[in-house]
Amino acid sequence: MIIPAPAALGPGEELGPEGYRLEVRGGRARIDAEGDAGRFYAEQTLRALSLGGGTPPDVTIADRPRFAWRGAMLDVARHFFGVDDVCRVVDHLAAYKLNVLHLHLSDDQGWRLAIDRWPRLAEHGGRSAVGGDPGGFYTQDDYRRIVRYAAERNITVVPEIDTPGHTHAALCAYPELASGRRSEPYTGVEVGFSSLDAHADLTYRFLGDVLAEVAALTPGEFLHIGGDEAHSTSMEDYLAFMARVQPLVAVQGKRLVGWEEIASAPLRTGSVVQYWNTMSERGHDLARAAVAQGARLIMSPGDRVYLDMKYDASTPLGLDWAGHVEVRDSYDWDPATLVDAVGEDAILGVEATVWTETLRTLRDVEAMLFPRLCAVAEVAWTPQARRDWEDFRARVAAQAARWETAGVAYTRSPQIDWP
Ligand code: TNX
């Protein structure tokens, strides 16, 4: 949601924890909210209304979000992004009222968070990145700074340690996790070749330690354990792995989040499943399997909100396995009608992803985020009946002024009439 249309709520409707009422008369603003989150969002709206430092117009707005989870994922494993870059991304999320920053902290190409009990993860696994580019990792203090910066903006950090596949960097740092097999750091972009050993006790001692440290650093209630594209883990091993990893999350008092593949395993109550693969019916089946188990879903359809996809054939960066994703693709869809038998109640929220195989700098990331992140933010915030592409197009065009002032790299999609 960029600039909300006035009076989104009827008179009897409650504001809820993130809602607010904002009244501006003659340049003076009055804010009502039940809590800090609502007040913060009222301020963001006020800021958007005063674009360019002008006086905000007279408005009366009563507003609250459609979905509780409004997220964006940043892949800091394929390429590393330092604390300042991540905080700038947090600022962007906050401006558009997103409330979850999902950090993809480990993958085949790198491990990005220092773990005291397994120091070689970051020391060794932190050195590599795609294409032989410089790696890097967050010290635990760095990570705490990100968490704090995000919390001040009503944003929860959800850390992801991707397992049992996407683990080459860890296996390389600790060959004993790979039955002693030594290997070189991986700098390519293939997926699905690595796996933790689902039957080794050491695997679970390792993950127990890692998840304990990550949980201790993370005030939010969620731990993301990945679970995607484990192409070199047999289904039998995958199920054995899921059965043993879930208690390691639960014992930390956290709720498990995983990519849609985890729904092929029995899930503990309260689990959250992230739907992504729009390239086959299997994604839909897994989403339904998740709901049948009582899990709730985060909707991240690849052909809508994978912001690492190219806008069109002329986009210099990005991938295209899910097709091209233009601004209108990101905007014009309804999370509650995307998958048969997965309705509003089953959906916890919506999350954009930014995988960074081809993205090396913050400018690269911003060019993929904007303007599409605004579209995803509005899908997550605004009720379907109140969303309209033409109206959005006009409002998003006006954001260019903010991006120019702040030096934000954005893509001048031909679908928008830029000023
Ligand atoms: C699929 S989506 C992946 C990632 C890649 C991404 C590239 C998902 C859960 N896994 O490993 O980076 O595609 O778009």
Structure description:
The protein is of the alpha/beta class and 419 residues long. Helices cover 33% and strands 16% of the residues. It contains 14 helices and 13 strands. The chain has helices at residues 36-49, 83-95, 120-125, 140-151, 168-173, 201-217, 235-250, 281-292, 302-305, 327-331, 362-369, 372-381, 389-397, 400-406; strands spanning 20-25, 28-33, 59-63, 69-75, 100-104, 106-107, 110-111, 156-163, 222-226, 255-259, 272-275, 296-299, 347-354. The strands form 3 sheets. The protein has an 8-stranded parallel beta barrel with strand order 4-5-8-9-10-11-12-13, surrounded by 6 helices. Strand 4, helix 2 (83-95) and strand 5 (100-104) form a beta-alpha-beta unit. The chain is globular and about 70 Å long. The mean pLDDT is 95. The structure holds ligand TNX. Ligand TNX is lined by residues 191, 228-229, 259, 276, 306, 308, 319, 355, 357.
